[in-house]
């Protein structure tokens, strides 16, 4: 077996058992955090750790079955899930500081022991005190940051505006295209929020509005209540929507039928529409959702290649695909602009330098968020205006992206 085959096999196993492993990891993180807060003794018997971890894991499995009285809308359950999510970061920080402390004591203590007898024990005490202070401060910063993410951060909505000169956009006049993605109608969205989002999108005065999938969160989404509100989206030319993986989880046929019933949107599932823009054609190709698994998208869709070969040359093409991995194909085929979502920008990100962020979405795809360019083609991955799993956003606000598109 080659190295590439080994990596592919490892990735399949990882994503297949991801949620089971995540549940165990969360349970371990919760117990580590509780242990450090309530009984931080390194001499704690292994039996105590094993019994406590088993109890926490059992309780989490009980909650995950969905048959408990603690529904996802329960404030107590939301508070518990927020604690569990925060525990992931706190426990990781505690483990890192523990390893750093051990390494520091080993290196510095060894050096000083060779120079001065008895110095290593003094260093060990000083190092332990310093790292104890670091743990407390770091723990507090993580709690403050995620508290912000669950309150202020998740309420932020950013309108990202950019001008894109596209070499493969025919003879079209300048266009304004607005994009939203990952609405996730369900337990994490209120009518008031959706109304606000629709108003902000309409304020962009776009020629075309594109919705790049995950309109519904699951099969329990109340489409009859929320889609009439979403249907108030207004564009000068058209509102075009595609479906995402969560729409398929909730029943793709049901979501499509509801969109056609409650809205005037153009719904594309492996289909394309031609818009007349002042006498010039704009081909919009909407791909139905495909994936290697729940996380990763396919890199090539035969329907896309076949459709592009049938189009007249030198006419503008816009591709909508929920998962951004398709950019390998669209850029190779000379598509000017591809719009995607799916990643939510990770929902939680660590700020780096020069406006860059490190997010868990990088586990899923290298096209994690924002603008990408390849071979003269552009891809934009929208952060989404909804959330899934956790109602938290840190350094990743909800997003409406607006593109002023013009020919180079």
Which labels suit this protein?
Purple Acid Phosphatase, chain A, domain 2; 6-stranded mixed sheet; 11 helices; 14 strands
Plain-language structure description:
The protein is an alpha/beta fold and 408 residues long. It folds into 2 domains: 3-153, no CATH class; 159-407, Purple Acid Phosphatase, chain A, domain 2. The chain has 11 helices and 14 strands. It has helices at 3-16, 18-38, 46-64, 75-115, 119-155, 191-202, 223-230, 245-249, 252-262, 302-310, 327-332, and strands at residues 157-166, 175-180, 208-212, 238-242, 266-267, 271-277, 280-286, 316-320, 337-340, 350-351, 357-358, 370-374, 377-381, 398-407. A hairpin with a 5-residue loop joins β10 (350-351) and β11. It is elongated, with a radius of gyration of 25 Å. It starts with a helix and ends with a strand. The mean pLDDT is 89.
| CATH superfamily descriptor of the largest domain | Metallo-dependent phosphatases
What is the name of the CATH topology of the largest domain?
Purple Acid Phosphatase, chain A, domain 2
Top-tier CATH class of the largest domain: Alpha Beta
Largest sheet: 6 strands, mixed
- The CATH architecture of the largest domain: 4-Layer Sandwich
Tally of distinct domains: 2
What is the number of strand segments? 14
Order of helices and strands: HHHHHEEHEHEHHEEEHEHEEEEEE
Widest beta sheet: strand line-up:
1-14-2-3-4-5
């Amino acid at each position: 077996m080659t190295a590439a085959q080994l990596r592919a096999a490892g990735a399949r196993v990882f994503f297949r058992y991801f949620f089971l492993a995540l549940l165990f990891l969360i349970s371990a993180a919760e117990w580590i955090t509780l242990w450090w807060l309530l009984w931080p003794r390194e001499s704690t018997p292994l039996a105590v750790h094993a019994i406590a971890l088993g109890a926490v894991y059992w309780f989490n499995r009980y909650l995950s079955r969905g048959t408990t009285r603690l529904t996802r809308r329960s404030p107590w359950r939301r508070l518990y899930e927020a604690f569990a999510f925060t525990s992931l970061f706190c426990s990781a920080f505690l483990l890192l500081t523990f390893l750093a402390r051990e390494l520091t004591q080993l290196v510095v203590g060894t050096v000083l022991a060779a120079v001065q007898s008895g110095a290593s024990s003094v260093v060990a005490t000083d190092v332990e005190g310093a790292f104890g202070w670091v743990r407390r401060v770091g723990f507090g910063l993580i709690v403050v940051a995620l508290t912000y993410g669950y309150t202020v951060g998740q309420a932020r909505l950013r309108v990202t505006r950019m001008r894109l000169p596209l070499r493969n956009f025919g003879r079209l006049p300048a266009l304004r295209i607005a994009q939203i993605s990952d609405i996730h109608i369900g337990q994490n969205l209120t009518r008031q929020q959706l109304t606000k989002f629709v108003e902000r999108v309409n304020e962009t005065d776009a020629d075309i509005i594109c919705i790049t999938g995950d309109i519904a969160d699951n099969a329990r989404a109340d489409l009859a209540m929320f889609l009439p509100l979403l249907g108030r989206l207004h564009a000068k030319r058209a509102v075009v929507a595609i479906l995402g993986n969560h729409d398929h989880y909730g029943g793709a046929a049901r979501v499509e039928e509801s969109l056609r019933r409650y809205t005037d949107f153009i719904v594309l599932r492996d289909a394309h529409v031609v818009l007349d823009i002042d006498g010039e054609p704009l081909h919009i190709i909407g791909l139905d959702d495909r994936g290697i698994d729940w996380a990763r998208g396919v890199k090539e869709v035969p329907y896309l290649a076949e459709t592009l070969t049938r189009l007249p040359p030198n006419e503008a093409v816009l591709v909508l695909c929920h998962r951004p991995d398709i950019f390998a194909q669209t850029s190779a085929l000379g598509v000017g602009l591809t719009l995607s979502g799916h990643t939510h920008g990770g929902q939680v990100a660590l700020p780096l330098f020069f406006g860059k962020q490190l997010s868990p979405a990088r586990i899923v795809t290298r096209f994690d968020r924002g603008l990408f360019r390849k071979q003269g083609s552009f891809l934009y991955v929208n952060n989404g205006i909804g959330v899934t799993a956790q109602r938290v956003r840190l350094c990743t606000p909800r997003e409406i992206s607006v593109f002023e598109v013009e020919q180079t």
